[in-house]
Amino acid sequence: MQSKDIIGTWRLQEYRLTNADGSVSHPWGPGSDAFLIYTEDGHMSATLRIDDTRSGAMAFQAVCGAYVLADNTMTHRIALSSTPELAGTDQVRKVRLKDGIYVLSASPSIYGGPDTTADLLWRRIG
Prior knowledge:
With 126 residues, the chain is mainly beta. Helices cover 0% and strands 60% of the residues. The mean pLDDT is 92.
């Protein structure tokens, strides 16, 4: 995968957690939505509205910064975040692009815990 493959605007299609036993859950409810933008000059921005089915709360998350794509690994270098502890960190994800769906994977998942893999599936909209 190359940067030219991901430049543009993406909308979240699905968020799923896969446990060590292979079971899959969808902890974000139908009120969840998100946009992810990659620019040609190496910047990214993500805005998420999260309908957390576990807590019943609605949350808003936003991050922006630079990105580096190397092989099948994406590093988001977070410059600014609505979650202060993320600012100044590198968020590293495995990536793949298949049939128009861009997948960012984290293992272990921050959201799901040490024995989970989180997948965010995005569809290009622009």
